[in-house]
Amino acid sequence: MRIELNGRLTETEAPTLSALLAERGHDPACVATALNGDFVPREAREATPLHPGDRVEVLRPMQGG
Amino acid sequence: MFYGIELTSRLMLGTAQYPSPAVLREAIAASGTDVITVSLRREGPDGAAFRQILADSGCRILPNTAGCHTAREAITTARMARELFGTTWIKLEVIGHADTLQPDPFALVEAARVLCADGFEVFPYTTEDLILGEKLVEVGCRVLMPWGAPIGSGQGLRNVEGLRAMRAHFPDVPLVIDAGIGAPSDAARAMEMGFDAVLLNTAVARADDPVAMAAAFARAVEAGRMAHTAGLMPRRDMAQPSTPVFGMAELG
Asked: Which residues does UniProt mark as catalytic (chain B) (predicted)?
């Protein structure tokens, strides 16, 4: 299915948010996730299914002021 | 006291725009800061190195919601930051205008209301508007962070009298001048006026020598605070001789 991952159209086989992180090689402890604009806590990723057209954000610490 | 935390330094430092990670690391040390601000962005290459700098600094982390233009974006970003950095502190920015980077006061209060109710300890980036400050306190903010000048402008304290009025209006709320500081003298002045701390980034990061500038700001903030505690002399409209007139010879 096709989703939007960090603003880019992305083809994925991952059925859940946690599976998507594994598919993309993210360390699950080092990123924070949001689905369609809402925060998804770490412990809820496995039970969060993905659907075509979903907007997923995977964020990490960054320099900021 | 910032949400019950007593800091040893009254300088809070941003971590963006440094010429290199090594300079950032040294500047944090030279500033003597206890609090550094960080952000959340999409995955890129240098995540691990930055995380290491944060860990090594020993500083308390104040994540921000920089770049958010709606309450919803800011709330989601804050929740992501809380999980990632393991802190309930959040520097809440809800930007209302892309050119001035002025906060959107309505969305700011709305986001602060939701986040305070959700257990966050909110540091709202605000203006010197007194009513806005009152609304933020009403919804649960126990720190306010008025701007000195637009973010990154280095203009210093643009509305000194407005800030003075704000200080007087909120005697018991910790107030941090956030944004717009350009020179150590700006920071010293804010501290002399009785502000509890200053938060800055560009003035250090964009200096020719950020490490030396971080040290300069550390001293300015300390001097300003010391001067405030010592009590400044009252200003006068007219001159008044400092040398006694009494006992002066008549030589004319």
From this structure: 91
**What ipTM did this prediction achieve?**
0.95
pLDDT surpasses 90 at B241: no
- Please determine, for residue B168, whether its predicted confidence score (pLDDT) is greater than 60: yes
Give B79→chain A minimum CA distance, Å: 6
Taking the CA of residue A10 and the nearest CA in chain B, the distance in Å comes to: 15
Return mean pLDDT, chain B.
95
The Cα A25–Cα B218 span in angstroms is 41
Mean pLDDT value across residues A26-40: 94
B217 contacts on A by Cβ (under 8 Å): none
Interface of A with B in 36-55 (CB under 8 A): 37-39, 41-42
Which of B77, B84, B125 is the best residue to mutate to test the A interface, defined by the most A CB atoms within 10 Å of its own CB? B84
- The domain ranges of chain B are 11-230
What are the CA-CA distances from residue B151 to residues B1, B62, B155, B227 (Å)?
25, 17, 9, 26
Q: Which helix (H) or strand (E) holds B125?
A: strand B121-126
CATH superfamily placement of domain B11-230: Aldolase class I (3.20.20.70)
Report yes or no: B167 and B193 within 8 Å, Cβ to Cβ.
yes
- pTM, rounded to two decimals: 0.92
Question: Is B91 part of the annotated catalytic residue set?
Answer: yes
pLDDT band for position B98 (50/70/90)? confident
